[in-house]
Write the structure tokens for this entry.
Amino acid sequence: MGQTVKEKPQQDRWSVVDAGTLASCYRLIGELLLYPQERDQDRIEANLEALDDAPEKVREAVQKFLAAPRSQNADEYIDVLELDAPCPLYAGAYIFDEPKSCRGVGMSGRNAYMLEVGAVYKHYGLDASVRDLADFLPMMVEFLGLSLDRPDRDKIGLRRRFVEQYFQPALAPLIEKLEKFETPYAELVKALAVLAEEDLVTMFDHPVWVPPADSDKRPFQSYEPEL
């Protein structure tokens, strides 16, 4: 097992967003990314107050989403975001190339990626099996909020690796696709991109878990991290 500390992300200022605000913003956006009829309105209302202390870009993006009529439209969600739709909410789809054959599916780096993501969930006590695939974006966002409430479980930098390697790389390509369809869900993912940057600033002096030196040096390994 290896650890390393990277340089502080380039920002114009130090982050002033506390962990509680970050966690509440993640929970709010995670709920809003669900199918409209499955959203927990009580949970949404409970976390809306966090926007008062959130970065301005996050606050404006979420408010813009909530004001859009299509944010409550079930057909919009199905047509744009479901698994077979043009902008599926599965992070791995934007990090790995689509396999071109059945053999390619078996050898895809996304398989190893999913194993690692699932192992991190398990370590933090999150049961991902009850909802969807491990890289389902609302599940990943739910984890980011939950893990901020359980800092004692992160002694080796798993959470920082999660943000840097498993989560953040999917956001820019997903935003690009969502904007092509002019869907309000692009606003939520833009807000997530800001939160991820803020999150990394708070962790700039934390270690980050890396695969053991004797691995095959692929970015994602097909084994569970030693936790």
Notes: The first strand starts at residue 2 and ends at 4. DSSP finds ten helices and two strands in the chain. The CA atoms of residues 58 and 191 lie 5 Å apart.
